[in-house]
Amino acid sequence: MPAAENPTVAVMDAVFAHHGLNARYINCEVAPEALGSAVRGALAMGFIGFNCSLPHKVKVIEFLDELAPSASIIGAVNCVVIKDGRLIGENTDGKGFVESLRTVVDPAGKDLVIFGAGGAARAIAVESALAGASHITIVNTTASRGHDLVDRINANTPAEATLVHWDHTIKIPGTTEIVVNATSVGLFPDIDARLNIDANTLLPSMVVADVIPNPPRTRLLADAADRGCTTLDGMGMLVNQGRVAIKLWTGVDVDGQIMRRKLEELFA
Ligand code: NDP
Q1: What is the atom index within ligand 1 of the atom nearest the CA of 240?
Q2: pLDDT at residue 5 in the model
Q3: Long-range contacts of range 107-111, CB-CB < 8 Å, 24 or more positions apart?
Q4: Angle of the 143-156 helix axis to the 119-130 helix axis, nearest 10
Q5: According to DSSP H, which parts of the chain are helical?
Q6: Does the N-terminal or the C-terminal CB of the chain have fewer CB atoms within 10 Å?
Q7: Mean pLDDT in residue range 162-183
């Protein structure tokens, strides 16, 4: 995709310009076999850091000097910070989610149900656990992936995690305070896709969050809003993971509203 059409580049350019930051964000396709050379290239060219996305989030770790604590538990890196010639792996997805969540509720002491056990779910579950969540139920169709995530949480965080194998329609327990869709269900163009859950078990006391940024109002969020839940869309997570990355690279706290407006323009 040409750089000008890449949403991440457009959003970063907009916020760098707004704050007068002397920085550029470029988008590069890197083949798996070239990943090590690309990382060394970024270091050689004096980059302050870079993001990496699928399929490089796990493989990139072997080319880094150190991992931030949460990235180490998550086992994946989406953001690398280059400081004093050292490559430090971070994961800003979960941090971005928690920042977004805190605009409506603090996860500390809360009971969460998270659908999914992929990269987004791992980041969200680990950061929520590190932010003080008391219990996390992971619901996933592939049981082995779910077990892996539950084991990571129980072994490395103070939270307690359990797994529900998603081979039936899920009724969300009434004691749940935060419900998160961290699967790819509902992502454009499959916007009519619904999670296999009993939507009547969503209660007004619950905060219902979705990772899907496009479209921001997913079927899940529409169903939740109809039942009086507080809802949180995936654009907030997307904006905040970018804000966290810019802060790590430059030390500057940028305005998320500029980023959100640009995203809304692009996804309209
Ligand atoms: P992964 O491929 O790592 O994981 C996908 C997850 O979705 C798995 O748990 C998978 O289950 C589950 N899943 C897929 N289809 C279904 C289905 N029909 N029913 C039930 N579960 C299903 O992807 P990521 O975790 O990296 O990304 C997931 C979503 O999160 C994407 O849509 C992505 O756009 C979004 N995302 C949003 C971000 C944001 O900032 N807003 C940041 C990062 C991701 P199983 O394990 O059984 O295969």
Answers
A1: 40
A2: 63
A3: 107/131, 107/132, 107/133, 107/178, 108/132, 108/133, 109/133, 109/134, 110/134, 110/177, 110/178, 111/135, 111/137, 111/175, 111/176, 111/177, 111/178
A4: 20
A5: 7-19, 35-44, 69-74, 92-101, 119-130, 143-156, 219-226, 234-250, 256-267
A6: C
A7: 98
Structural contact between residues 196 and 219, judged by C-beta atoms closer than 8 angstroms: no
What one-letter code names the amino acid at 168?
H
- Whether residue 114 is predicted with pLDDT greater than 70 in this model: the reply is yes
Tell me the mean pLDDT in the region 135-151. 98
Sorted by sequence, the CB contacts under 8 Å of residue 96 that are 6+ apart come out as 236, 237, 238, 239, 240, 241, 242, 243, 244
Model confidence pTM above 0.90: yes
Output the six-digit token pair for 200.
Answer: 């009547």
Tell me, in angstroms, the distance from the centre of ligand 1 to residue 186's CA. Answer: 10
**Half-sphere exposure (Cβ direction) of 268: Cα atoms closer than 13 Å:** 6
Candidate of 184, 185, 191 to mutate for ligand 1, largest count of ligand atoms within 8 Å of Cβ:
184
pLDDT at residue 2, rounded to an integer = 47
For residue 207, the surrounding DSSP H or E stretch is: strand 207-210
Cα 86 to averaged position of ligand 1 atoms, centre (Å): 31
**Mean pLDDT along residues 206-214:** 96
pLDDT at res. 6? 85
Cis peptide before 189 (omega within 30 of 0): yes
Query: 172: number of CA atoms within 13 Å, CB side?
Result: 29
Check if 100 has its Cβ closer than 6 Å to any atom of ligand 1.
Answer: no
Answer whether 94's CB lies under 8 Å from 128's CB: yes
